[in-house]
Amino acid sequence: MLTFLHSLKSRLLFLIFMIILPGFIAVFFQATQERSSAIETARLRAIDVVDYMAAEQIKIIDETEKFLKRLSKYPQLLTPDSAECNAFLSDIEQLSESYVNLGVPNIKGQLLCNAHPLTTPVNVADRPYIQKAISKRSFTIGQFQFDRASQTTSINFAYPVIDTKTDQLVAVAVAVVSLEWWSKKLESTHLPVNTVAYITDVNDKIIANYPENKALIGKSVKDIPSFSKATSAQQTQIRKDQNGYMRIFVNRKLSSEVNDQAVRFIVGIPFDHELAIIDSRLSRITIFLVGFILLITLFAVWVIRENILKPIKALEVSSKQLELGEKTDLDFVGETKELIDLQKNFSAMAKTRLEAEQQLKDSQLFLRESEASLSRHLRNTPLGSIAWDVNFICTEWNHAAQAIFGYASEEAIGSNIVNLIVAPDLRSDFFAYYDSLLGHRGGKQFSISNITKDGHTIYCNWYNTLILNSLGVVTGMGAFVKDMTVDKHNRDTLNEFFKLPMNLHVIVSFDGLILKVNTGWQSILGFSREELLNSNVFDLLHPDDADKTASETINLQAGENTYSFENRYMNKQGKYRLIMWSATASVEQQRIYAVGVDITDRRLAEDKLKLAAGVFTHAKEAIIIADEKNHIIEVNSAFTHLTGYSSDEVFGKKTNIFKSGHYSDDFYHEMWQAIYHQGYWTGEIWNRCKNGDIVPHLLTISTVSDDAGKVKNYIAFYTDIAAIKAHQKQLEHIAQYGFNESTKS
């Protein structure tokens, strides 16, 4: 813009001039419009080309960022010094026409993995975009440069390669884009003949041109004759070159992401033919009525000064007063309604701002007072107040923390908080809580064992919060700590009590007063909680058990635990139940915690089993007990006497070892069918003894089933009937021979 248009007065005069002039010199205006239209058409065409190229550049940057982000996920890039990495990049580079080279330098900048073989070592650690990708762990863009690997003028892009298992940065993925794409894209826009274009770096050096002229690469754009007087600040220029071509040049900065410095794209569109036609018509136009325009201008100057410039000057003076924090005294001048309204609004705004500044000062004073009050509270609170930075270095330690852990603030502040008060085997848990708090997954409250200065282990509750700076970045953690050692001991004692096998729960004082019972007392003995509370536990005890119970109570009070102690307690019906007790005592609380199990029915069952065992052992009949598969699991002494087999000899064997061979398979089948359907079988059978004798037995086999009706055992009773059989045979003999003798006589 021309310098005389910098002031408001000159711009308003120029606007008036531009409004009046077309009405009096229509022909001249028409010609000027046509000239401007031709230039504007060329300019817009140049702008379209620049916008198109800028959009293409952004597209390439976006596509490259996505490409490198995907590429960095491949495991081959985690080992940039491997042949596998080189082969992988070579294959990937052949699949894309956008990139002339791909590489993966390690974090030291050594380019060991490259899509094209390297003849000499290459180190890119000095490249700012590589350094930035490593330090920021983000996508970066390099300067336009001569790529040492692909031997072309290019621009490089980088993205960090991070091992997701360890979160360690191991390399940087780099993609190289050649500047040849600029020329190809320009050719596709069908530019007018004699169009030229240049791409320059931050030093105005040409790094690409159109039509391609490699002789210009590396030269300053000012070395071109048509640009010798141009400056990089000019966005639009009209220049004539040494061949007489008139062009309009559009100069625009492109991406500002290349090391925070932009390159420029310059395109020149010719418009010589159009200007020649317009100039010939303009040469026939005569400028007239200049005097009238001057008269109008003088009148406009007076109107502008009185109605615009003076009110604006008053606003300027008031703005200076507001800047200095002074009260503004604005006198409303001028007759323009809009400017008067503006002055009123400015006065209201100034008043509001001054009031807001005063409120801010009052708020800051209140904040300082609140901070002082909070600081006093933290120093005197019974909870330990501790804070540390991101490296776990202690930054705050109040008196309560000193009382809990034993360290003075001078000893704690500046020390590693984890090494100071966290047991070595629990430090990983402490770090895990901190990570959970950082990830908003918990960690605001946890309990953990800590170590005091004198080496004692204490149990503490931690109430934590993150400390953020003004930008919302975590700078550390603050915590309130409460010593819960005594509470934990009490809970552990109670938990130990309730872990014992229990039916009757009771807490009694050392003098026998019942303090607490559970509902088992009502379901087992019939007494409600209300009936038992504050009564003496010895009142329900069987008189014969009083002495041994008192002795066991003394042992408990001495610190011993009780397991399987039995005594008898009376139920509400006046009968006694046998109770087996487990108990522990708290000397500090003068209380006994006990659990009782009613074993009355179990003891009766045991007595019945003892009786049944006596019958089994002393019975005169031989008895065999077999499992559901007919394997012998028990025999009595009568069985050994009858068959000659000991218990060890027949254990685990089937009962068919006694078969005599006198019976067919059908006989045994019918016998077991009867047992299956009727549950028993009784009959006479001949069995073989251990010595080989075959003797007759009277056999009864019965089944024993569980509650579901499934057979669990078979019980067989054997009665020796050999004597009966011998007597029967003798009678039969007497009967037979006695009959024959009587016949002969």
The CATH homology group name of the largest domain? PAS domain
Mean pLDDT: 79
pLDDT under 50 segments (min length 5)?
none
Alpha plus pi helix count: 21
Order the strands across the largest sheet as they lie in space. Answer: 2-1-5-4-3
Mind explaining what this structure looks like?
There is one protein chain. By secondary structure, the chain is α+β, with helices and mostly antiparallel strands. It has 4 domains: 43-273, Beta-Lactamase (2-Layer Sandwich); 381-483, Beta-Lactamase (2-Layer Sandwich), CATH 3.30.450; 489-604, PAS domain (Beta-Lactamase, 2-Layer Sandwich), CATH 3.30.450; 619-729, 2-Layer Sandwich (Beta-Lactamase). The chain contains 21 helices and 25 strands. The strands form 5 sheets. A 5-stranded antiparallel sheet has the order 2-1-5-4-3, sandwiched between helices. The chain has a 5-stranded antiparallel sheet with strand order 7-6-10-9-8. Strands 12-11-15-14-13 form a 5-stranded antiparallel sheet, with helices on both faces. Strand 4 and strand 5 (168-178) form a beta hairpin. The protein is elongated, with a radius of gyration of 54 Å. It starts with 7 loop residues before the first helix and ends with a helix.
